[in-house]
Sequence to fold (153 residues):
Amino acid sequence: SVLGSELTPLFLKNIQNLRDYIKSAVPFKLDERMAAVNNLEEKFKAEQIPPVKALAQLWSLVEDERRLAKENAVYRQTVQLGEQTYLADVAKLGLSLMYFQTDEGRVGQVVKSGEKWSFKEIKDQNGKKMIIDLFSDIKKQIRTGYFILPVQS
Fold:
């Protein structure tokens, strides 16, 4: 019980650090990632899991984030363009860059303004071609190498 009481502040501090990190990284499957953190914290606060097990599960979430930060891949998720929400392919390049391609042919990238992330459509033909080529290469399992990509701010 002494060990558990000593681990509680450590757990609470680090779960908040993980939450802050997830909020600052690109909004890749943000709801799912935050739900995992919130679920773990709720179980811990409800005393459904002991502090040692909670820290082990927290470390597992941190390892998942590290894996996501290393990985370049295409996934499906919703993107918000103006007032519309679309289901789109997203090319996640680590947790620093993310591009999207909707089924309707709209492409763009995720940009950060202050503390807020948003999906911005790229309309110039050269930028669109770069993004379409990126999706094509990643789908062909070409995940490393030299890519020329548009970057908006």
The longest strand covers residues 72-81. The chain has a mean pLDDT of 90.
